[in-house]
């Protein structure tokens, strides 16, 4: 008696594809769907979509949905003041591919001391497909009552001590291919506006 074989059905860029072998790579999916190899492939997830690199091995499940988008500029083009929202900043490339964006004379909301700080945001190597996480300030800030802000602690970075705000975006808040550094800067501001 022969064993019955069932193909796996997935959607790639809203087109249906059948695969006899569930074991695939990002490269094989792109080739099958005729997606340019430099484009970024995503597996749709309920909150934040998963980036599928060309050399990543995956096991397909029927009903999964994939989509692609043209590659973003991963630090090759300079960060502009319009991206940051403030005119005085530096973009400092790190040896591991991260970029540290330091906004100088960042004005804190009333209720914090001091009134201005340097604000640091770390952009991961695959930004903007991957979201930034947390932010840092220098010098250390305190609330109007003299308390250390919630979720804040000191951390050495670039030869000095920075105050890290252990604060994270809600699941699904960052949308690869849509969200920008300016969006993240607005979220940082919203966190600081809580004044705690």
Question: Residue-averaged pLDDT, rounded?
Answer: 88
Domain unit count: 2
Structural class based on helices, strands and sheet pairing: mainly beta
The gyration radius over C-alpha positions equals 21 Å
- Assembly state of the chains shown: single chain
* Count of distinct strands: 15
- Please mark out the parts with pLDDT under 50 across 5 or more consecutive residues, or reply none: none
What is the number of helical segments per DSSP (H or I, 4+ residues)? 3
The main pleated sheet reads as: 6 strands, antiparallel
Q: What's the end-to-end separation, in Å?
A: 69 Å
Secondary-structure element sequence?
A: EEEHEEEEHEEEEEEEEH
Give the helix proportion (percent range): 10-25%
The largest sheet has its strands arranged as 8-9-11-12-15-14
Query: What percent strand?
Result: 35-45%
- Shape, principal axes of CA atoms: elongated
What do you see in this structure?
This protein is mainly beta. The protein has two domains: 62 residues, Ubiquitin-like (UB roll), CATH 3.10.20.30; 112 residues, no CATH class. 12% of the residues lie in helices and 36% in strands. The radius of gyration is 21 Å and the shape is elongated. The mean pLDDT is 88.
